[in-house]
């Protein structure tokens, strides 16, 4: 009986859908310093700017279309015959719109809102404002349900359980040398799990196999080979 596949995806998976990768070579994230838009301190300092930044990202994600890599992973999950765990660092919902049934969003999701006061979550409107009242406690403390720098990623226990249930770890469109990707691939090696990287170019991480190229090409090709076997 074959074991499961654990897939960790990052910004490179959605880049060909028109969503920019997390941080450009100049150290900026869509023309903003990360410290100004992706930390609890930034939200406390200028919540309106942070909300505006994520409102723009939410609109961009809503207008994006799943690419062949998203659809290929959904097909793998549907047809493989063993668990395929899709764990993503991305905050878009392109995997789901590409047909994936279950996706673990370790960094949250643009489509969700979070009350900074009571922790209640709800479906986010396209345009959010910090003064929007929480549906649960009515506090005007609405923030994006996004994991910022300095915060703990979501679902870490479930992610570890999923990894331990697999025979193959695959990193797609994310660095293999920056945590958590580095930690997951390291854990996989310690567990004797084969590791693979599919990326535009090799990240420098330690993998048993590396395939380079655009996600919309290398991911469907790999999925075809897996399902053919």
TrEMBL record:
Matches recorded under Pfam families: SIR2
Organism of derivation: Celeribacter ethanolicus
Cofactor binding, per record: Binds 1 zinc ion per subunit.
Coiled coil regions in record: none
Cited function: NAD-dependent lysine deacetylase and desuccinylase that specifically removes acetyl and succinyl groups on target proteins. Modulates the activities of several proteins which are inactive in their acylated form.
Binding site for Zn(2+): 115, 118, 134, 137
Record: residues binding NAD(+): 10-29, 89-92, 173-175, 215
Domain Deacetylase sirtuin-type positions: 1-229
EC number: 2.3.1.286
Domain of life, source organism: Bacteria
Main location: cytoplasm
List of catalytic residues: 107
Keywords per UniProt: Cytoplasm, Metal-binding, NAD, Transferase, Zinc
GO molecular function, one term: protein-malonyllysine demalonylase activity
Database matches in SUPFAM superfamilies: DHS-like NAD/FAD-binding domain
InterPro entries the record matches: DHS-like_NAD/FAD-binding_dom (IPR029035), NAD-dep_sirtuin_deacylases (IPR050134), Sirtuin (IPR003000), Sirtuin_cat_small_dom_sf (IPR026591), Sirtuin_class_III (IPR027546), Ssirtuin_cat_dom (IPR026590)
GO CC annotation terms, alphabetical: cytoplasm
Residues annotated as binding substrate: 54, 57
The protein's name: NAD-dependent protein deacylase
UniProt keyword Transport present: no
Reactions that this protein is recorded to catalyse: N(6)-acetyl-L-lysyl-[protein] + NAD(+) + H2O = 2''-O-acetyl-ADP-D-ribose + nicotinamide + L-lysyl-[protein]; N(6)-succinyl-L-lysyl-[protein] + NAD(+) + H2O = 2''-O-succinyl-ADP-D-ribose + nicotinamide + L-lysyl-[protein]
HAMAP family per the UniProt record, alphabetical: Sirtuin_ClassIII
């Amino acid at each position: 009986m074959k074991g499961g596949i654990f897939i960790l995806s990052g910004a490179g998976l959605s880049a060909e859908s028109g969503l920019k990768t997390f941080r450009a070579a100049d150290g900026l994230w869509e023309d903003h310093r990360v410290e100004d838009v992706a930390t609890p301190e930034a939200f406390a300092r200028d919540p309106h700017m942070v909300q505006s930044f994520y409102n723009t990202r939410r609109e961009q994600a809503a207008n994006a279309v799943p690419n062949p890599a998203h659809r290929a992973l959904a097909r793998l999950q549907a047809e493989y015959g063993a668990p395929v765990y899709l764990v993503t660092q991305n905050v878009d919902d392109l995997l789901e719109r590409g047909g994936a049934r279950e996706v673990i969003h370790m960094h949250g999701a643009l489509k969700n809102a979070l009350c900074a006061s009571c922790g209640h979550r709800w479906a986010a409107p396209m345009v959010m404002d910090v003064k929007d009242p929480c549906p649960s406690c009515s506090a005007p403390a609405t923030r994006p349900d996004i994991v910022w720098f300095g915060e703990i990623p979501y679902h870490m226990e479930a992610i570890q359980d999923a990894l331990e249930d697999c025979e193959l770890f695959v990193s797609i469109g994310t660095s293999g040398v920056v945590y958590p990707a580095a930690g997951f691939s390291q854990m996989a090696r310690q567990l004797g799990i084969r590791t693979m990287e599919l990326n535009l170019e090799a990240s420098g991480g330690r993998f048993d196999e590396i395939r380079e190229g655009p996600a919309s090409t290398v991911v469907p090709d790999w999925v075809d080979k897996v399902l053919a076997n």
